[in-house]
Task: structure prediction
Amino acid sequence: MKHLLTKTMLIALLSVMVISCSKKNEIPADQENETVQNQKVLAYIKNLGFTDAQIVESGNNYVVDGDIVFSKTMEVPADNGKPITEQYYNGNIVTNSSNIRVKIDPSINGMISEINSAINQWNTVPNSKIKFVITTGTIYDILIKVDNTIGSSTCGQAYLSTSNGKAGNTVWINQNLIQNNSFAQRQRTITHEFGHTISFKHTNQSTTINVPGVGGTDALSLMNGGQCGSGATVLSAKDKQATAVLYPL
Ligand SMILES: [Zn+2]
Result:
């Protein structure tokens, strides 16, 4: 009996460990210590169409659907994220979309070619004014940097664009995880994360806002989530179409 009990406990423990590995730090059931601010941010994330199961607490952030990051200290917009209106987006169009300044943190100097390739993909979308530009100045819209601690299966993470028209201001790349991927896949990760900073969510996620006229699933979408190291390496026809709808010339 005792042996059986031990075995059961071991199995239970192993299950917990497996769950922890795949889902990272779940929000604790005991939310008593959560501040009002945290609850506001959580309510905002849910209003954007995400479910509790998709939201993972990670340090000072909430991470949604693997790689979309919300700071716990973010300013929650007055409309609380209610949709304005597939490819999917968060409703927050970046205002200075033809001059989005990207600062390259020295930590990611080893991937400048990949960053340039990613920027080139967005900058050459037909009929769209989207332009990322690399800056070395102190004023920038997005900082891209290495963070090798974001999870054993997470290639990168990014903030979404904000309700006051700013690009998501940080992209984190898990260099240790992706460095053995092909060049195409490495730049895919960066292209994908830049997509989040200009409002794109995951195309293969159902609870989001359709880009008007460009709805539905798209197996070729570079903005499909959960495809680190295996997903599309170039923006699909529908990705480009959606970009041109949100950021027309
Ligand atoms: Zn993503």
Observations:
- The radius of gyration is 19 Å.
